[in-house]
Amino acid sequence: MTVILYLSILLTSLYVLLIGCYFYGWLRIHYFDLKDAATETYQTFSILIPARNEAHVIVKCLEDIMRQDYAQNLFEVIVINDHSTDETQLIVEQFCKRYPEFNVQIIHMHDDSEQRKLKKAAITFGIKKATKNYIILTDADCERGTEWLSTLNHFISKKHCKMVYAPVAFKAENIFQKIQAMEFAGLVGIGASAIRLKNPNMCSAANLMFEKKVFDEVEGYKGYDGIASGDDEFLMHKVFKLYPNEVMFLKNEKAVVYTSANTSLHELADQRRRWVSKSTKYENRYITAILVGAYFFNASIIFNLLFNVEIGIYQLLAKTFIEGIFLFSVLHFFKMKRFLFFLPIAELFHILYVVIIGIWANYGTYNWKGRNVK
To answer: Of 169, 167, 168, 185, which Cα lies nearest the Cα of 346?
Structure first.
């Protein structure tokens, strides 16, 4: 039992230190104040929307983009129809006819090979068709404010960066979704902090921007083509390796895009399995080591709560305390501080699913957009 005690103390101490470092990194990211950073430089953007069976959300996404306070001739929207089996194609084509003044087009994936059905293939196909200097990746279910594009423009014009990870938040209506929104905000905060600390780990293709020529410089997704997930993170790691000082996080609420939280445990499980499935594929083993360490820390809490309650409670309190401090700051940015009320419930839920999904994600297949992938 002494060995278990010392191991539990070690895992807990390392986890608290890790989250403390992320908290420090988050605080080190300067808020991008548009009042001080407005510029008369205007970049050109190709906004790519990979879409598979998105008929129910694609119009709202396109309408939000078309309402941007940015000159229409400076950006284009390319919807990549990724083998949709619903009315996505028809709806986008009707949108284009209804608003011919907007630079929106839809292109179609025709290659039926398994590897060419992955999201990376759709993005690569869209980039080849893009005509502007900067690529922006977003998802068909994302919503945004009218100053989203101009904020991105001001940021890259001032910072001269090669890649920008901009904030993403979950839309939440019920307690289940609010817990997800709080956790996801924490993941965004960790990804932003890691970029600031020059050891990037995660980002999201729901709001990711980079120079088109940089995609070619790093040879796109070469080396990761056959992995279903990671179209965002693997690309960021490759760009960071070439331009370590020119990958940045944009800390401004006007740059936030909002995406849908999962509506069921089944959806959540598939999403998390997809995310975790790439955990052993990182070239930077430091990231894998952190994930493995976090996994064993969470597993040790469950073990101790079952067999040594006092130690387990101390671990749970330490986890809740350090994450609460970090989340308070991140949620304040996202204007979601009230969600912190659900942290005690979220902690138990989070520990259980991390342990279960951590094993489950590496076996069998999971469902993504109607496809069974490994």
So the answer is: 185
